Every structure is written in structure tokens, then in C-alpha cells.
Amino acid sequence: MSPNLHPMINVAVKAARAAGSIINRAALDIESVRISQKKANDFVTEVDHAAEQAIIETLMTAYPGHGIWAEESGREHGAKDSEFVWIIDPLDGTTNFIHGLPVYCVSIALAVRGKVEQAVVYDPTRNDLFTATKGRGAFLNDRRIRVSKRIHLKDALLSTGFPFRPGDNFANYLTMMGDVMKRTAGLRRPGAAALDLAYVAAGYTEGFFETGLQPWDMAAGSLLVTEAGGLVGNFTGEADFLEQEECLAGNPRIYGQLISILGKYSKFASAGEKAALRQARHAAAEVPMATSEGVDDAAAQEPKSDDAS
Fold this sequence. Notes:
Radius of gyration: 23 Å
Oligomer: single chain
Distance between the termini: 86 Å
Mean pLDDT: 88
Helix content: 25-40%
């Protein structure tokens, strides 16, 4: 632990490393890990629970008067009326973890009166430790990080997450992805939103967008981005996004350009924008149909060949 870090960050780092050790040990024998399903395509393992317990115990030992808001246990632990609330995702990227794909992390944030002031994202596979304290900058393994300096969307590498739950609007997401992909250098789907946000902060990618996220997916990563000089909000650019289930992050220039593309896909878009989007989708769906009908008509009008007679 660094003496230069805020005392609360030092405790959060200790908690994240304890969780990381549990995750790394379990990763050595993935086949023996017990897995259950919370909802369709939404998995939880005994490792999630053990890592979360280790984090909560570490935080509660240091700060017994603080509140806890964790992915698996909710608000069951900690003080119920504290202005200090730790927001925890013990294993972001559980699906990757149970497949042995080494893209997952521990995410811990401290919100004070609803605003995130401390953040830790720890990648136990690479031993990468991202930290941020409000007003003090963002760091990766004690090295100051900044968002990318690329300013043109055509040069930008973005990350996202795909919808995976029944009831998610797949058609809308495909249209949105198509809108973004044709304008950028590339689109990636790593599968751990907290790490995606950390990578925006480190300048590895220029931006990130996803819907359906929960506060524990975004809290720590969002502070990393802003402390690294980036911007975070919902798809229309509103900064109060943490409980709105949509997140857009990027360096300032790319962020502004993405709002102009993604704003109409926001659940907070105007009725006119939503209607225009529906019209565009219907028109796009009718084009292939009309084309195939034209081909069929042309085929019907062609004279039969000698071989067919």
C-alpha cells in the first residue's frame, strides 16, 4: 500500500487484493467452482460470494459506521443511514471467469452523500491496480494515467457490452452498434464494464457505452475516468447517471461526438427522437425485403432456358 494514497483508498486496496487472491486461487481449478443462475444468462459463483465477504469484512473492520451496497448481498451489511456507502462488485465479468477467459476484476467505490469520492478497480489476472480519489487524479500501479488524446471518431477504439437478458431490446442495440461501428476504428466487447471504464481512463480506448448496467458496475470506473480527464454520463450527457442503467464515457472530444450519435437511443431521448429512430428502423427492415422481391419478380419474367423445356 502506498503512503501517498488516501487512507480510505488504502483500505479499499487491501480489500480488493484479498478478493483478488480468492479469485486467483479459484481460477486455478475453474471446473470445481459451484455456479448458480440468478436470472437467464446472469451467473453467480461461490467465488463471487467469498470475494464479496472478504471485501465487506475488510471495510467493516476499518469503518464499522459505513454503509455497504454490494452486488450479491445488497444493503444487508453495514450501517443503514450512513452518508458513507461502499459500492461493491466483487467479481465483474463472472461469465468470463467461469469460462476461464481472463477478463474480470474487483470493483470498489466509496460514495459520500451520493457522490463517488474513492475508487479501486483491481484486475487480479494482470495484477493491475487502478485507483482514484476525487480531486487527486487517477493511477495505474502508482503511475498517473490520462485519457487518450485522439480527437477524431474515425480513429477511436471503443468498447461496449451486448444485451444478454430476455426482454433486452436486441434490435435497438444492433442498430446502435451499426451506427457507431461505421464511424470508428473498431468496437470491442471485453465483458467487464468496470475494466472497460478503467481502460478509457488509461487511454487504451477512447470511449465506452452500455445499457442495463447497475451502480456497482459503474461507480468505481466512472471516477477513474473523470479523474483521468474524461467525461461520464448517460447517452444524452446527463452527469447523474449512476442509477439510470446506461453509461457513456470517453475523452472529452470523443464523448461529445458519441452523444450526438447515441443520444437518440437513450431512454431519456425526446418523443420525436424515438419516433424518428423507429421510422428509420422500419425503413431499413423494408429495404432487403423490397430488394429480394425485385429479384424474385425479375426471375419470374426471365424466359425458360432450353434445358428446362
